[in-house]
Amino acid sequence: MTPPQTPHPESRSFGVGPAYPSEHQQFSDSRRSGQTTAGPAAGAPEESVRPSPVARSGPADSGRDVGIVFLGASQTAGYGDPKGLGWVGRVVARTQHPDLDLTAYNLGVRGDTSADVAARWAAECRPRWRGRGERRLVLSVGTNDVLTGMTLARSRLNLANILDEAKTAGVAVFVVGLAPTLDPELNHRVLALAEAQADVCGRRSVTYVDCFRPLVGHDQWMADLAASPDHAHPGQAGYGLIAWLVLHNGWNDWLRIS
């Protein structure tokens, strides 16, 4: 199947980290000076989406007790992954660090909109953070907003409210953007919401990861969706691609590890 060609302004900054053009079939890691490391290519084995283990950051961060809650809908929950990991499980597996005492909770709920997450996030996160030295929230929501006809303004406001409430409560937030679908027309609306979310996060200096542009032209992502039973949720390859994007676009900086 030919991937949908969704136009985008290549000159515009979109989220945190490299804004990969949609025609790229590989992801690049430019964190290392003077060299480029190829990301997961189409047809690559599962191991290829895993970055190298992080190095010890030093005694200053020793003993950090961090609680991370992942909030979102079915893709956050990892629905459709035969390994049962989703992108969340893969990210957590690559975040084990000798100076980090990490407790992670996946609170993804199938069918949730941004309004649903806004209504439940505080009550559900509070007991998971009890006793933790650092409280962190990873948010990925919005596709169901588009599917249910929620207005862009309302969806934008729901995200803004969560971010503002979290900031007031002293909670650090990391936002994972929307992934493309197989439907070119739907992708126009998904892209519009992704840009709105990036703007909301940018205004608040919240890390936002662009998942739309790198994946809309990625053969492996589109093939993974096409091969899935519902043609909407990826399998292990697709979830691995999302995990790679998260891990290579500000994740370690956000967690203050190296």
Description:
By secondary structure, the protein is of the alpha/beta class. The chain contains ten helices and seven strands. The chain has helices at residues 74-77, 86-93, 114-129, 143-147, 152-168, 184-203, 212-216, 219-227, 236-247, 251-255, and strands spanning 28-29, 37-38, 64-72, 100-108, 134-140, 172-176, 207-209. The strands form two sheets. The chain has a five-stranded parallel beta sheet with strand order 4-3-5-6-7. β1 (28-29) and β2 form a beta hairpin. α3 runs parallel beside α5. The radius of gyration is 17 Å and the shape is globular.
Give a count of the beta strands, DSSP E runs of length 2 or more.
7
Number of helices: 10
Mean pLDDT: 83
Order of helices and strands: EEEHHEHEHHEHEHHHH
Radius of gyration equals 17 Å
Sheet with the most strands, sense and barrel status: 5 strands, parallel
- Strand share of the residues? 5-15%
Strand order of the largest sheet: 4-3-5-6-7
Task: Provide the helix percentage.
Answer: 25-40%
What is the general shape? globular
User: Stretches where pLDDT falls below 50 for ≥5 residues?
Assistant: 1-25, 29-61
The class by helix and strand makeup works out as alpha/beta
Q: Tell me the distance between the termini.
A: 40 Å
Short note summarizing the structure:
This protein has 258 residues and is of the alpha/beta class. 39% of the residues lie in helices and 14% in strands.
Q: What is the element layout, followed by pairings?
A:
Elements: E1 28-29, E2 37-38, E3 64-72, H1 74-77, H2 86-93, E4 100-108, H3 114-129, E5 134-140, H4 143-147, H5 152-168, E6 172-176, H6 184-203, E7 207-209, H7 212-216, H8 219-227, H9 236-247, H10 251-255
Parallel strand pairs: 3-4, 3-5, 5-6, 6-7
Antiparallel strand pairs: 1-2
